[in-house]
Amino acid sequence: MRPNYKNWLPKGIIWSFLGGTVLSLVLCLLLRHIKWLAIIFAVITVFFCALTLWSILMYRAFSYDGKRRMSAQIIEGTAARVKLPAGGKCLDVGCGSGALAIAVAKRNPKAQVIGIDRWGKEYASFSRALCEQNAKAEGVSNAAFQQGDATHLDFPDGTFDAVVSNYVYHNIPGDRQAYLLETLRTLKKGGAFALHDIFSKSKYGDMQAFVQKLRDMGCQKVELIDTTNGQFMTPFEAGWMALSGSALLVGVK
Prior knowledge:
By secondary structure, the protein is an alpha/beta fold. It folds into two domains: about 10-60; about 70-250, Rossmann fold, CATH 3.40.50. It is built from nine helices and seven strands. The protein has helices at about 10-30, 35-60, 70-80, 100-105, 130-135, 175-185, 200-205, 205-215, 235-240, and strands at about 90-95, 110-115, 145, 160-165, 185-200, 220-225, 245-250. Strands 3-2-1-4-5-7-6 form a seven-stranded mixed sheet, with helices on both faces. Helix 1 packs antiparallel against helix 2 and helix 3 crosses helix 4. The longest helix has 28 residues, at about 35-60. The protein is globular and about 70 Å long.
């Protein structure tokens, strides 16, 4: 039995772009006698064709079964930042298919990892059952999964020895720095965090100021580590994949 971590780019997106390509091409051909309309639909066809190609390349890059395996590299690189004490607890916010929670659990077999997610319609193929199946396939018994909301975590302050997350908060509208603080609220004094996301200014505002804010709050060794410089992906990949700004926010509370 092999784990199935799915793909971060749902196949539905590829099919929708392909459908747009076919539909606009058909309309272009049907309306070719009306020149200006034919030109408009020709441009739309090229646009959807480019989106289709982009989505296919993204899907291949993220695939756990492909050559690039960027998803696996990001997951393992993030998990490697966390070392838990025996009997310790870690929270994975937005666990998706369970990949990061399971990777942390495998590296820390004497600790407990809890993965939470709302498993919304955007990623309908992800579920609690899938996470549990993947944990079983990996031989991991120290990871559990439950429904949760990243904006209002159902855990008391200082519950966890570590908190992790990967590509979650940028998908949630609103004050994303506040969501980070909500996650860090559940971290024990002395606990570690490793949060990977697209920390661009357009999504998060001034993250360097946020890093300083965490230091002023007493967090230690806080760093914002660029992961587009070859650590997880190249600058070129980050550019065409629209992942520029990807970074790891790490530190100790």
